[in-house]
Amino acid sequence: MSSLKKIKIIKPDDWHVHLRDKKILKKVLRYTEMFYQRAIIMPNLNKPITNCKRAIAYKHRILQATQINHTQFEPLMTCYLTKETSLKELKYGFLQKIFIGAKLYPNKCTTNSETGINKISEIFHILELMQKIKMPLLIHAEDNNVDVDIYDREANFLETTLIPLRKKFPELKIVLEHITTKEAVAYIEESNPLYLAGTITPHHLMLNRNNMFINGIQPNLYCLPILKRKKHQNALRQAISNGSMNFFLGSDSAPHIYRNKISLFGCAGIFNAPSSLLCYITIFEEMKALKYFESFCSKNGPNFYNLPINQNTITLIKKPCKILKKINLGKDSILPFLSGETLKWSIL
Fold first, then answer.
1. Which CATH number fits domain 6-347: 3.40.640.10, 3.20.20.140, 3.30.565.10, 2.40.50.140?
2. Of 13, 14, 143, 252, which is the active-site residue?
3. Got the DSSP string for 136-182?
């Protein structure tokens, strides 16, 4: 194990965050802006962010919820793609820097994706424009066919949708978000990092599907894409340990009210914002790969999105940090990832 006691890195960005809205937004935002200078905000609200007007209004609500001592936080907005998405609206939003990219949700694949895409061919005209203007496409890369085993949906999406799609649009910039399989790792590693990258979450690095069923069912570990076999977890850990530019930080922090997590129809999502960066450094240390930690957290993402690398820094120290047990929300609460557990690293 490393004897390093302190590490200073360029302040990271989180390239995949769910902040929700209203009272949840006001409660959870502080944990993202504590660790990250920028964050890509997912558009799958109850009323999805499908146009510039909604994106501007949502960004305003986020900035209104920022803490006084974290005024440098920058939310990066995305457009929720539907087959009715206006080409004019999308192009305007990207060129005017309202949108950093557009998000593809297969229909009913995750939270608030009921208006997502059924067939990729429905949006070929949109993807043609995006390739032309170099607008990144962010994909929840899972097959939404209910006949496909839930543990195979990512690998199946690569085979049946992504590979043909990239042959048709070879210069479309694509981010496969929250990858979970060795197949995704291998495919991304073989690809040009100018056009294909993947984000990796802390929970898919730290856990595998066994963890969901130890000491009974653990509903707070239910997420989509679902936790996979240990061989896939190991592939993700190896991917971040070799210095590849194809992978970068995307926490997929996704808060849900506790009673909705444990209800009959438990919601998919893990709220990891209070611990995500501390989880990442823990894993990099375990993998003896701390020399690549800054690149994964702070450089690979901006380079892919053609954004400047941050100037601010953040310092992490080898000091125990106990993760808060819950966040109170009136009569409700939100349980963070690793609730009540202690990690070996803290923010200075």
1. 3.20.20.140
2. 252
3. -EEE------TTS-GGGHHHHHIIIIIHHHHHHSTT--EEETT--SH
Evaluate if residue 264 carries a pLDDT over 90: no
Question: What are the backbone dihedrals phi and psi of residue 72, each rounded to the nearest 5 degrees, phi first?
Answer: -90, 0
What pLDDT is stored for residue 2 in this prediction?
57
Q: What H or E segment, with its residue span, contains residue 196?
A: strand 196-200
Give yes or no: 252 in active site. Answer: yes
Nearest-angstrom CA–CA distance, 223 and 156: 18
- Distance, in Å, from the CA atom of 128 to the CA atom of 187, rounded to the nearest integer, reads 22
In terms of average pLDDT, the best of 2-11, 234-243, 259-268 is 234-243
Give the whole-angstrom CA distance, residue 152 versus residue 256.
Answer: 25
Q: What tokens appear for 255 in the block?
A: 């808060």
